[in-house]
Design brief:
about 80 residues, mainly alpha, about 70% helix, rod-shaped
């Protein structure tokens, strides 16, 4: 039941070309499964990036300097 929507959408798209829709149903099911895996990964990455960006901006506001060197893209503490 969970993959039914992907299969129905894929079959409908495949039928527009005059095909039987079976290949579209299979592709729709695979695409829906891939989306179920990739969306949480992408959301986690985006949230982590936003937290890191916010922490960097907070550090910059408190300390007055960006902790990451613009020349080497490394932490300034590691360069010394």
């Amino acid at each position: 039941m969970a993959n039914l929507l992907g299969a129905l959408i894929g079959a409908a798209i495949d039928r527009q070309d005059g095909d039987s829709g079976i290949k579209g149903a299979i592709v729709g099911t695979v695409a829906e499964s891939a989306i179920r895996i990739l969306v949480p990964v992408a959301a986690t990455y985006a949230l982590g990036w936003a937290v890191q960006y916010g922490a960097r901006k907070a550090w910059q506001a408190v300390n007055g300097a960006d902790p990451v060197s613009s020349r080497s893209s490394r932490l300034r503490a590691d360069e010394a």
